[in-house]
Specification:
With 481 residues, this protein is of the alpha/beta class. The chain folds into 3 domains: 224 residues, FAD/NAD(P)-binding domain (3-Layer(bba) Sandwich), CATH 3.50.50.60; 113 residues, FAD/NAD(P)-binding domain (3-Layer(bba) Sandwich), CATH 3.50.50.60; 104 residues, 2-Layer Sandwich (Enolase-like, domain 1). Helix 3 runs parallel beside helix 6. The chain binds flavin-adenine dinucleotide and nicotinamide-adenine-dinucleotide.
């Protein structure tokens, strides 16, 4: 018998679970199908983000940061420790508890909102029907007035370094090491490579990052990328650019190692590691998701084709999150989930794709929103720049956390803020302040006239906004462009 719903969501990651909750809040009878399960074959909600992504990686980043601070930074504050040690399994266990708490939280929210959570793999059939195959192979059928596809993404594998879950791992495996690898190789100097490379480097691994591109973080504002590279290298990350990995060989025996070969401008190279993390990007999940006659189209990179409102070509079928175009970020997926639910309910909600904030959670953090200096140059827009270094921010000095800077790019004619780029302490939270200002079309002068608490890191944002018009107080102003 086919069970009928107003909305059937496939996938319970940030895009899917948020869409389901919003649909239920708006009065729609909602089901969410999720294939992730525990050992009792009950669905586990939260997708990549809560289970093996944003949250567990940040738990380990925070633990390892505390260890690195205790090891390298306490002395300057006059604090000495007799003996410092790490219990890696305890660190991993703490991470698992946080994951359990948050995935359980989604379960509670589903129950409070009367959402039917259904364990199984969902497949869209024609006519807005969804076939569900449970872990035990049993099939059932649901029908939604609307269907939302939110099947997310998985790590990309590359032929020279096939993962074995032990010596060569993807991001999921890198969250589960039970001891600190002495020599850690990372393929890809992207977000995951830098975040997870940092975790293990702080705990004592010698980390080498092999990046195929010649440029470090090419999507980031050039000045901020250069500053970030300098800081991360100073922390001990051995970042090798222009390194094209050609092969790998895992040794036999108990303490396995992996020999990695790569080519760079100097020719063929070889390195041996105790563990290797492959972090070369993620791909959308659509295998088995769509029947041949579902009518939903994929683009040439395998993403589900949608318009600006996340509607597919098929009436009442929507798709959101990592499985559609745009950056693979939890917050982008969540906003799309809300938009889709609102649109089903007849509201005109839109996502402002021009103001997606990006963060790399290294220490210091690297964060940005809006246009980079290089993009504005390419577009021929005239702009002013305001910068302010944390080295002269009172709060950063008090905390002994003074690496980095804030950079604001501002329209030369209208003074409207066009972008903000930060490497520095709490950059994620600081950029968010500017994202709000930009959402309200703020000028640099507006931000300059706003009172900021003293002493705060956010005063660096204030000063960068003032600096864009040559009015910084606590730094010598560059000539106004
Ligand atoms: P997913 O979270 O991938 O969820 C999709 C869900 O659908 C999964 O639960 C899957 O089991 C289920 N599913 C798939 N197919 C089916 C099917 N046929 N039937 C039933 N269920 C199905 N982003 C940030 O914004 N900030 C961060 O700090 C951050 N850190 C990250 C760290 C790591 C290590 C990784 C790997 C990713 C990180 N991300 C981060 C990215 C973020 O996790 C993703 O952008 C986000 O999870 C995407 O959400 P989603 O709902 O589209 O898909
Ligand atoms: P990424 O796209 O950020 O970086 C991958 C890097 O690998 C790139 O620099 C690329 O040039 C390099 N690369 C690709 N193939 C290579 C090869 N054969 N040899 C060497 N280098 C190679 O991808 P990621 O770091 O895997 O992250 C995947 C996605 O997850 C990202 O899109 C990101 O948005 C999301 N994510 C976000 C956060 C965050 O928001 N803080 C954290 C983790 C992941």
């Amino acid at each position: 018998m086919t069970k009928k719903y107003d909305v059937v969501v496939i996938g319970s990651g940030p895009a899917g679970y948020v869409a389901a909750i919003r649909c239920a809040q708006l009065g729609m009878k909602t089901a969410c199908v999720e294939k992730w399960h525990n050992d009792k074959n009950e669905p586990v909600y939260g997708g990549t983000c809560l289970n093996v992504g944003c949250i567990p990686s940040k738990a380990l980043l925070d633990s390892s940061h505390k260890y690195a601070e205790a090891q390298k930074d306490f002395e300057v504050h006059g604090i000495s420790l007799q003996k410092l040690s790490i219990d890696v399994p305890a660190m991993i266990e703490r991470k698992a508890k946080i994951v359990g708490q948050l995935t359980g939280g989604v379960k509670q929210l589903f129950s409070a909102n009367k959402i039917d959570g259904i364990q199984g793999t969902g497949k869209l059939l024609s006519g807005n029907k969804v076939e569900v195959t449970a872990e035990d192979g049993k099939k059932s059928e649901l029908e939604g007035e609307h269907v939302i596809l939110a099947s997310g993404s998985v790590p990309i594998e590359i032929p020279p370094t096939p993962t074995d879950g032990e010596t060569i791992v993807d991001s999921t495996g890198a969250l589960e090491f039970q001891s600190v690898p002495k020599r850690l190789g990372v393929i890809g100097a992207g977000v995951i490579g830098l975040e997870l490379g940092s975790v293990w480097a702080r705990l004592g691994s010698e980390v080498t990052v092999l990046e195929a591109m010649d440029e470090f973080l090419p999507a980031v504002d050039k000045q901020i990328a250069k500053e970030s590279e300098k800081i991360l290298r100073k922390q001990g990350l051995d970042i090798r650019l222009g390194a094209k990995v050609t092969g790998s060989k895992v040794s036999k025996g108990k303490n396995k190692t992996v020999k990695v070969t790569y080519e760079d401008k100097d020719g063929d190279q070889e390195m041996t590691f105790d563990k290797l993390i492959v972090a070369v990007g993620r791909r959308p999940v659509t295998e088995g998701l769509l029947s041949d006659d579902s009518g939903v189209e994929l683009d040439d990179r395998g993403f589900i084709k949608v318009d600006d409102t996340c509607a597919t070509k098929v009436k009442n079928v929507w798709a959101a999150g990592d499985v559609v175009r745009g950056p693979m970020l939890a917050h982008k997926g969540m906003e799309e989930g809300v938009m889709v639910a609102d649109r089903i309910a007849g509201k005109k909600t839109q996502v402002n794709y021009d103001l997606v904030p990006f963060v790399i959670y290294t220490h210091p953090e690297i964060a940005w929103v809006g246009k980079t200096e290089q993009e504005l140059k390419e577009e021929g827009v005239e702009f002013n720049i305001g910068t302010f270094p944390f080295a002269v921010n009172g709060r950063a000095l008090a905390a002994n956390d003074k690496d980095g800077m804030v950079k604001m790019v501002v329209d030369a004619k209208s003074d409207r803020i066009l972008g903000c780029h930060i490497v520095g302490p709490s950059a994620a939270d600081l950029v968010q302040q500017v994202a709000i200002a930009m959402e309200f079309s703020s000028s640099a002068e507006d931000l300059g006239l706003t009172m900021f608490s003293h002493p705060t890191l956010s005063e660096a944002v204030h000063e960068a906004a003032l600096a864009a018009n040559g009015h910084a107080i606590h730094a010598v102003n560059r000539k106004k462009r």
